[in-house]
Design a protein that fits this description.
This protein has 161 residues and is mainly alpha-helical. The protein contains six helices and three strands; from the N terminus they run ααααβααββ. It starts with a helix and ends in an 11-residue tail after the last strand.
Length: 161
């Protein structure tokens, strides 16, 4: 029976050791998270040094063997990938202007075409639908048979934004 007792004691020691290792791993993980947060804050607060290299070939060669260490470095867009353009007019405002300009009873496809021509916006149908529905709920637009028009007040004039 002493062999069974030895096995049980060894198993108990290993279990305790694993518990200590798990606790230490958790502590180190928390410290790493705090360090990452501190690094992000410091990268926002520190001004760019005048002697630093830009994004030229020298900077690329200097960092060739390194992996990005901060979350800010991972957000850099690879060459050839496009970032969405910021438009001067928000989608909801542009949608309302498009319906007003197209006059009575404009379809969603006509509105999308108008947004592309006049505002340079390539709008997904779902995004356009959300903008139109928000105006409908607010009482600025009406929808009849999948066609959109400016809402009419009781006096008969169109509602202006």
């Amino acid at each position: 029976m002493s062999t069974m007792d030895d096995i049980a004691a060894q198993r108990q020691r290993l279990t305790e050791r694993m518990a200590r290792i798990d606790a230490e791993r958790l502590k180190v993980t928390e410290e790493l998270g705090e360090l990452d947060a501190a690094e992000r804050v410091l990268s926002r607060l520190t001004a760019a040094k005048p002697g630093r290299r830009g994004r030229g070939k020298g900077a690329q060669n200097a960092n060739a063997g390194k992996q990005p260490q901060s979350s800010a470095a991972r957000r850099i867009t690879p060459r050839g990938e496009r970032k969405p353009a910021k438009h001067e007019v928000p989608l909801r405002e542009a949608t309302l202007r498009a319906v007003k300009a197209l006059g009575k009873e404009a379809s969603a496809d006509q509105i999308r075409g108008y947004l592309g021509r006049k505002f340079g916006m390539q709008v997904r149908p779902l995004h356009l639908g959300r903008a139109l529905q928000s105006h409908r709920r607010a009482g600025r637009l009406e929808q009849r048979d999948e066609r959109w028009s400016m809402a009419q007040t009781q006096s008969g004039e169109a509602v202006s934004a």
